[in-house]
Protein backbone atom coordinates (compact mmCIF):
# COMPACT_ATOMS: atom_id res chain seq x y z
CA UNK A 1 0.00 0.00 0.00
CA UNK A 2 1.13 3.51 -0.73
CA UNK A 3 0.97 6.23 1.89
CA UNK A 4 1.66 8.89 -0.73
CA UNK A 5 -0.86 9.03 -3.58
CA UNK A 6 1.62 10.85 -5.83
CA UNK A 7 4.05 7.94 -5.51
CA UNK A 8 1.27 5.52 -6.48
CA UNK A 9 0.43 7.62 -9.54
CA UNK A 10 4.06 7.42 -10.67
CA UNK A 11 4.22 3.62 -10.67
CA UNK A 12 0.65 2.38 -11.10
CA UNK A 13 0.91 1.62 -14.83
CA UNK A 14 4.50 0.34 -14.84
CA UNK A 15 3.75 -3.14 -13.55
CA UNK A 16 1.07 -4.80 -15.65
CA UNK A 17 0.86 -8.50 -16.42
CA UNK A 18 0.17 -8.58 -20.15
CA UNK A 19 0.60 -11.10 -22.99
CA UNK A 20 4.16 -9.90 -23.66
CA UNK A 21 5.18 -10.63 -20.08
CA UNK A 22 3.40 -13.98 -20.16
CA UNK A 23 5.29 -14.90 -23.35
CA UNK A 24 8.57 -14.49 -21.44
CA UNK A 25 7.34 -16.36 -18.35
CA UNK A 26 7.95 -20.01 -17.56
CA UNK A 27 5.39 -22.51 -18.78
CA UNK A 28 4.76 -23.88 -15.28
CA UNK A 29 4.22 -20.56 -13.53
CA UNK A 30 0.76 -19.35 -12.55
CA UNK A 31 -0.69 -15.89 -12.05
CA UNK A 32 -2.71 -15.47 -8.88
CA UNK A 33 -4.43 -12.27 -7.76
CA UNK A 34 -7.00 -11.47 -5.06
CA UNK A 35 -9.03 -9.37 -7.54
CA UNK A 36 -10.24 -6.88 -8.57
CA UNK A 37 -7.30 -6.50 -10.90
CA UNK A 38 -7.60 -2.70 -11.41
CA UNK A 39 -5.12 -2.24 -14.29
CA UNK A 40 -2.67 -4.79 -12.87
CA UNK A 41 -3.55 -7.68 -15.20
CA UNK A 42 -4.54 -7.21 -18.82
CA UNK A 43 -7.85 -8.75 -19.86
CA UNK A 44 -5.90 -10.41 -22.68
CA UNK A 45 -4.28 -12.70 -20.08
CA UNK A 46 -7.63 -14.16 -18.91
CA UNK A 47 -7.59 -17.04 -21.40
CA UNK A 48 -4.00 -18.06 -20.67
CA UNK A 49 -4.04 -21.45 -18.89
CA UNK A 50 -1.55 -20.04 -16.35
CA UNK A 51 -4.06 -17.40 -15.23
CA UNK A 52 -5.32 -18.92 -11.98
CA UNK A 53 -7.12 -15.93 -10.47
CA UNK A 54 -10.63 -17.00 -11.48
CA UNK A 55 -10.02 -20.51 -10.10
CA UNK A 56 -8.56 -18.89 -7.00
CA UNK A 57 -11.69 -16.75 -6.61
CA UNK A 58 -14.04 -19.73 -7.11
CA UNK A 59 -12.14 -21.94 -4.66
CA UNK A 60 -12.09 -19.12 -2.11
CA UNK A 61 -15.87 -18.87 -2.36
CA UNK A 62 -16.23 -22.60 -1.61
CA UNK A 63 -13.88 -22.31 1.36
CA UNK A 64 -15.88 -19.38 2.77
CA UNK A 65 -19.12 -21.33 2.30
CA UNK A 66 -17.65 -24.32 4.16
CA UNK A 67 -16.38 -22.13 6.98
CA UNK A 68 -19.77 -20.45 7.37
CA UNK A 69 -21.50 -23.83 7.41
CA UNK A 70 -19.08 -25.09 10.07
CA UNK A 71 -19.49 -21.98 12.23
CA UNK A 72 -23.28 -22.11 11.94
CA UNK A 73 -23.36 -25.83 12.74
CA UNK A 74 -24.58 -26.87 9.29
CA UNK A 75 -21.54 -28.97 8.39
Q: Overview of this structure, please?
A:
The chain is mostly helical and 75 residues long. The chain starts with a helix and ends with a helix. The chain has a single domain, classed as Rossmann fold, CATH 3.40.50. It is flat and about 50 Å long. The model has no long low-confidence stretch (mean pLDDT 95). It contains three helices and no strands.
Write a concise synopsis of the structure shown.
The protein is mainly α and 75 residues long.
Q: Which short descriptors sum up this protein?
A:
75 residues, mainly alpha, Rossmann fold, flat
CATH topology: Rossmann fold
Q: What's the total helix number?
A: 3
Distance between the termini: 37 Å
Content-based structural category: mainly alpha
Give the mean pLDDT. Answer: 95
Rg on CA atoms, Å: 17 Å
Uncertain segments are: none
CATH class categorisation: Alpha Beta
The proportion of residues forming helix, as a percent range, comes to 40-55%
Q: Number of domains in the coordinates?
A: 1
Strand content: under 5%
Annotated CATH architecture: 3-Layer(aba) Sandwich
Sheet with the most strands, sense and barrel status: none
